Amino acid sequence: MSPENRSPWRAAGELAAFLAVGFLFYHMSWGKFMTLRQASHFDPKDDTALFWTENAFHYRYAKMAALGPGIPDVDPKMQYPEGMHVTRDETPMMERLAGLLYRRFTERHLPFHVFLVFLACFYSSAVLFPAFFLSGHAWKGLWPGLITSLFYVFTYSFIGGVVLGSYVRQDFVLPFLFMATFLLLAALDTGGRAAAASAAALFAFSFMSWHLSPFYYLVLVAGLVALYLAEPAARGRIASALLIVTVVLFAASFLSPPLRSGRFPLSWVMLLSYALLGQHYVFRGREVAAWRRLLFLAAGLVALGGGAAWISQGHFARYSHVYRLVFDKIRCLGFKPEDPAGLCFESRVMWTSSFLSPSPGVMAGWLGGGWLAGAAGAWVAVRRMRAERRIAPSAFIILWMAAAFTVLFALIQRMDVFAGFFVCVLAGAAAPRRVFTARGAAASALLLALVAFNVWHLQRLYLVGSAPLPTQTRPLIGYLRERTAPDDVVLATFQFSPVICAFADRPVVVHSKFENARVREKVEEFYTALFEPEPGFYGFCRKYDVKYFVYEPSMLLDRSKESMRYMADRLRLPQDSTAVLMQFAPQRLKHFQLVFQSEAYRLFRVLGGTEQPAAADVPPLPVYDSRRFKKEDLGLL
């Protein structure tokens, strides 16, 4: 309907719906912030150890952008000795924005970490708008958009991360990434080049801001390939929109250092786009069976993949750990093997935390009633397409994305952010087009009852983060700040190292960004050496000029599938292993001096060539008492 022919009542309804979504956005943003402020780990006056692992990594550079000289091209402290190439290998757009807004619009008496979590609570909630727009566009109504919004705001994916204190790039990027998807689908439905160009710009920004964006786009392009083959009438619009997006992304890859260094033009998603566009223009204007097109596309993709591998291994080397993990998860049907030897080191390390496979109960609780509404919406969407005897591009892609990411969510928990979004968008299809009829009112009442169930279910959840409480880590951070030199290199797990670098400002050997192949190599070398006899581990420390090593009791005591011992394939150990001595007999160590101890950590100073260890002046603690443990339970030989 043209703007001049639109009913005033319809315009008023659209405005009211948008204001309702705006109210949800405002209310949920403030709700996130107030919940976080009341959390036991949040101190408005002290940011020490507030963030963990990659959250601390991001916080270091956001704080530099806000209070320091800016984000350096190379940070020698984050990845000693070679230095972390921040602007070349990372995508610190989120951190730059936080620093800019803090400098320009905030009084300096407001602590930066308070401002930062406030900002994150609001921009992470902006993902609500593309959900509303996409659902309203695909299912042709305001009520579907509102239903989607109501389901989405009461999911763990929407609330959980920020409330638990995360500071990750997905919360910043997802609003742009999903808005780009909405605009691309609008271009497929209407053939509008302006919408395709806008989508391309947002995709480019998303790719420059988050490493996982290209993987999302790969799933989307695979859906476009399936739609292209299934619906001949949509082929021209698909090729036109995809050409615009591909050209923009290709150009952006030369403007963005992370995309350029990662050889993005040679990535799988770009190769798939080239192959689809190539076969389209080769067969343009000709009647060719879909299976012939598929064969030509597959042959083109294989040829392009071979050529890309011959030209450069940059992209494949950067993401080899992800490809191997996905392959191993599929090979093992989502079940982590008992014997770590059945996996490569990268898969053993990655198959933890948010990369675990969630249980059916966890998956069910993640979206609650949204799963039922999404299933109903899928049934309605398929029924409509069958009745109309055509495939609606938006509906097809939403079904594709919801199905694909639900499967990926079952394999990798981190995929919940995509699965939750599209299942809730799909739930909008279940919203009746005519609300004020007996059937429409009944369907609406049932959907609202499921939303109410989600509210009730979410209130009963007790959200617990996986990071240690700041009260556990602050004493050690304080010791490092006060009792060590600024250039003393500290060795710790890849999860804890960014915390030390961000809050103690000490050089660390490894960090949590596994897109860096050199970090993966050093982590494997470190974890292997720790379970060798002392000379081997001491040699590793000397190689990287380590002055202090942070030991954690779990390094030895934990034998689970998420443990360091599993990652290093050392479930059984000799009693002269360095880890065993650091846990139970530090007085027998010849090259390490125990200088700090708590229930959670021990800090060892690495001695020089002629230094001799002295008796440690630390009180005894039960966790380090060998009499409380059995050798067979710990797998000690």
Care to describe what's here?
The chain has 637 residues and is mostly helical. It is 62% helix and 4% strand. The strands form two sheets. A four-stranded mixed sheet has the order 3-4-6-5, covered by helices on one side. A two-stranded antiparallel ribbon has the order 1-2. β1 and β2 form a beta hairpin. The chain is globular and about 85 Å long.
Write a short abstract of this structure:
62% of the residues lie in helices and 4% in strands. With 637 residues, the chain is mainly alpha-helical.
Secondary-structure topology with pairs:
Layout: H1 8-37, H2 53-67, E1 74-75, E2 84-85, H3 86-89, H4 93-105, H5 112-125, H6 128-139, H7 142-153, H8 156-163, H9 169-190, H10 193-209, H11 213-230, H12 235-255, H13 257-261, H14 268-282, H15 290-311, H16 314-318, H17 320-331, H18 345-350, H19 360-367, H20 370-388, H21 393-411, H22 416-427, H23 438-460, H24 470-483, E3 489-491, H25 497-503, H26 517-530, H27 534-543, E4 546-551, H28 554-557, H29 564-567, H30 578-584, E5 592-597, E6 602-606, H31 631-634
Parallel strand pairs: 3-4
Antiparallel strand pairs: 1-2, 4-6, 5-6
